[in-house]
Amino acid sequence: MTTQTSAFSRRRHGALLAAALLVPLLVAAPGAQRRNRNNNALFGAPVATTTIRHDPGAYVGRLVTVSAGVEAVLTDRSFVVDQRKMDGPKATVPAGSPLLVIAPYLAGSLADAHYLLMRGEVRLLDEGALGRLAAEYDITLDAGMHQAYMGQPVLVATSVLDGTYAELAPMPIPPPTAGEVALDEAMKVIGPAVTAMRTGVERSDSEAVAVSARTLDAEWVRVEETLDAMGQGPAAQWAREARTHSLAAAQAATAGRWDGARQATASLGTLCQSCHAAYRDRLEDGTFRTRPGTF
Description:
Layout: H1 14-25, H2 40-43, E1 45-46, H3 49-54, E2 63-73, E3 78-82, E4 84-86, E5 92-94, E6 99-102, E7 115-124, H4 127-137, E8 153-161, H5 178-202, H6 206-229, H7 233-254, H8 258-279, E9 280-282, E10 288-290
Parallel strand pairs: 1-2, 6-8
Antiparallel strand pairs: 2-3, 2-7, 3-6, 4-5, 7-8, 9-10
């Protein structure tokens, strides 16, 4: 692909202000950053291209955030960025510390990009590193297109935001594991059954509560076994407690102790919410995955 340079080399005066605003907003803006938004260990401390180029050894292997303008597009997955500095009252020019960026998931166009906000790991570029990157992300990287940057730091960006905070390099959503599929199937039964139990308690309908309890009992066993098989003992214990609450609600309803039934269903709802908050993540497509780090 032919290097494209002229379209990105000069920016209007507002680009510098946009760059200054983009870095601190990284940890607050995009919906894709679901949690731990102020954690630099996850999102990387803001670093200038000049700083990385001046002392690359201090940043190789580290996660960083870089805000810079596009200088050249090399391939559909790699481009060169640089900070801007003022050149007169209105014009800006590159700062002279270009940084190669390889964005394995880049899907959006850079044709109209001014400043980008990029997050990723700094690595040292050589032919071996190119080969490892190509294998790691299943992409094609032509050594010839990157020859001029050999021996220099490269930012392997897994997130690239444009000036409107649109993600240009969305990470692919991982397929669910067999355990996650089983949990999802169980939750699709448990959710309506819990609602039906709560409705039965509100209407003092002991038969409806008993039917819901039987449905829930089988599903709680299924959830317990799945979580135990996944090595998640603490979450499985919460499922056992949930089973106890649903059985207690049914027993109280059968005996006509509706205050006890209401207390049991309330405890069940609270426990379900706590477990989901601790162990489950909702992805951008609306599906759920087990939260990394909880196993």
